[in-house]
Specification:
A hairpin with a 5-residue loop joins strand 1 and strand 2. The chain is globular and about 50 Å long. The chain has 254 residues and is α/β, with parallel strands linked by helices. The chain is built from twelve helices and nine strands.
């Protein structure tokens, strides 16, 4: 209850910030975008990680306005970078299932997108569970939002229970291989085979693949050689403040 009250205050007083973890093309190492990750800049506790408040925010419904704030902030920041001369970046924002099912989401997305040239390349990261419950509705909702030019990444891929047929049915653009499968690559043969199978399967459905949790040069080379499209992880860069990310993007521009 105290946390809920504090989260309301955090929204009102704009205590949330977004950090940006770089995503690069596997073959060139050039930056293609980032995953926006929320932090709570708490007046006493300092930077609070999402693991400590997202679940509570989902339970009490505050994830809806918090998630809306994150979408707005990501679009604002990405337009600011564009205006500062940065090459276009695809910014991926995590959307919780609770927020995805909210009837107002398509309208929110529509109104926050700028018109014309500076249009933000926004991507929504959803998990397999979003596709599973109420899938008819999820499908039409995905298509409605996609018509505004938004792309989708399927987060934590492989950890859920969705069947491969979901990938064919829903308008997903990118599959993100969960970092638990990347961790023991390339030494663990079953994980290595699994990662290879996900990449090949995604490609045969015309989807791109991002590997998460890339921490070593061996993992990077292994994934690149399998044809994985994009890489994300501590080897590439940890989640960075907006200023730090801008410097990273300049240094690794296409
Ligand atoms: O930043 P960190 O590595 O601690 O992120 C932990 C988890 O918090 C991630 O799995 C991510 O999905 C979730 N998360 C981060 N930012 C957001 C956000 O803006 N909205 C939602 N719903 N989840 C987020
Ligand atoms: O949305 P998702 O659940 O994928 O959230 C990404 C989380 O993974 C963030 O909390 C981020 O800090 C964390 N993360 C990002 N890169 C790495 C990595 O290379 N190794 C590990 N262990 N965690 C990572
Ligand atoms: Mn994510
Ligand atoms: Na993930």
């Amino acid at each position: 209850i105290q946390l809920e009250t504090d989260l309301r205050t955090a929204l009102e007083q704009e205590q949330f910030v977004l950090h940006y973890q770089p995503i690069v093309a596997a073959t060139s190492g050039r930056v293609v975008g980032a995953e926006a990750l929320i932090r709570w800049n708490h007046p006493r506790r300092g930077m609070v990680a999402p693991g400590e408040f997202i679940e509570v925010a989902e339970d009490c419904g505050l994830i809806v306005p918090i998630g809306e704030w994150a979408l707005r902030e990501a679009v604002r920041q990405s337009c600011a970078w564009r205006e500062a001369g940065q090459s276009p970046l695809r910014i991926a924002v995590n959307v919780s299932g609770v927020q995805f099912r909210e009837p107002g989401l398509p309208e929110i997305v529509r109104t926050l997108l700028p018109e014309g040239e500076g249009r933000a390349q926004l991507m929504l990261e959803i998990t397999e569970s979003v596709l599973m419950d109420g899938s008819e509705e999820a499908e039409s909702r995905m298509r409605e939002i996609r018509d505004y030019g938004i792309a989708y990444a399927l987060d934590d891929f492989g950890t859920g229970f969705s069947s491969l047929s979901y990938l064919k049915r829903f308008p997903v653009d990118v599959v993100k291989i969960d970092r638990s499968f990347v961790r023991d690559c390339p030494d663990d043969h079953s994980d290595a085979s699994l990662v290879e199978a996900i990449i090949n399967m995604a490609h045969s459905l015309d989807l791109s693949v991002t590997a998460e949790g890339v921490e070593s040069v061996e993992q990077r080379d292994f994934l690149r050689d399998l044809g994985c499209d994009f890489l994300q992880g501590y080897l590439i860069g940890k989640p960075l403040s907006p200023l730090e990310f801008a410097a990273f993007a300049r240094a690794n521009a296409p």
